Amino acid sequence: MPRQGDRRHSPRVELYQRIVAAIDDGTFPPGARLPSEPALAAQLGVSRPALREVLILLQEDGVIIRRQGSGSTVSQSPPAPGLERLLPVESLLGPGTVRCRRLAAELEEPTDFSGFHLRLAPSERTCFWETVVDIDGAPACFAHEWAADEATLRAVDPALATALGTAPAAPDPAATMLSAFLDAAPLPMTARSTLGATMLGKERGTAISRPPETPALLLTQTVSVSGRPVMAAKYLFPAGAPLLHLAPRR
């Protein structure tokens, strides 16, 4: 499935980072409405088409919420209750017969998303998995998962690199990357999670025979060990998927 493949330090990624930094430093606090596109483009010194592309990426990553006619709003920063307890989507989808179907497993150059969240240099490579998670025979989640570069994984725990296999196809295709990591290494992993709304899109819709405009819940996660990101992911749950079973706060 096509993904953006620009280098991490492209103008678009730098603009992405500038807006995220403005959110982190309180210039645009959680819940605040961003200036209009013309005003924000002028404020940042960029063109409106370039800004619009980055706003779409920020929406896909759950950083902002965009509504036609209402502009863009910064997402609330606290994660949904229960997401601070790190669980693979196979567990979040609750009871039922779970089956994972691997659609892609490959080494690739950093994308805007993986390069930023995993702190990857342009010369590094990330292992990318695309997996469809079925519940009782029905597609319930598209999982797009990227691992940190092999040297980082081995420095954190060699078992993490081993969990990805050598191909880089997974030794166990019936699992998401997060599930493979959690099973491979008993490490204190933490995650930063955001929730947003999007649409299924043409190619994902074709894969499960659903219209491209089908609404979907987007969960993005950056998984870290001792502050070092080891995995970044986008989990897309189309309308009609089972409700997420979130663990209570402890």
Give structural notes.
- The longest helix has 14 residues.
- The protein has two domains: 64 residues, Winged helix-like DNA-binding domain superfamily/Winged helix DNA-binding domain (Arc Repressor Mutant, subunit A, Orthogonal Bundle), CATH 1.10.10.10; 150 residues, Chorismate lyase-like (Chorismate lyase).
- The termini are far apart.
- Strand 4 and strand 5 form a beta hairpin.
- The strands form two sheets. It has a six-stranded antiparallel sheet.
- The protein is 29% helix and 29% strand.
- The radius of gyration is 18 Å and the shape is globular.
- Helix 1 crosses helix 3.
- The chain is of the alpha+beta class.
- It is built from nine helices and eight strands.
Instruction: Give the beta-strand count.
Output: 8
How many separate helices? 9
Largest sheet: 6 strands, antiparallel
Could you say which overall geometry the principal axes of the C-alpha atoms support? globular
Residue windows where pLDDT falls under 50 for at least 5 positions: 1-9, 78-82, 166-171
SSE order, one letter for each helix or strand: HHHEEHEHEEHHHEHEE
Q: What is the architecture of the largest domain at the second tier of CATH? A: 3-Layer(aba) Sandwich
Q: Rg from C-alpha positions?
A: 18 Å
The CATH superfamily title of the largest domain: Chorismate lyase-like
Number of domains: 2
Q: What is the name of the CATH class of the largest domain?
A: Alpha Beta
On the 0 to 100 scale, the average pLDDT is 81
**In which order are the strands of the major sheet placed?**
3-4-5-8-7-6
Query: SS-based structural class?
Result: alpha+beta
CATH topology of the largest domain: Chorismate lyase
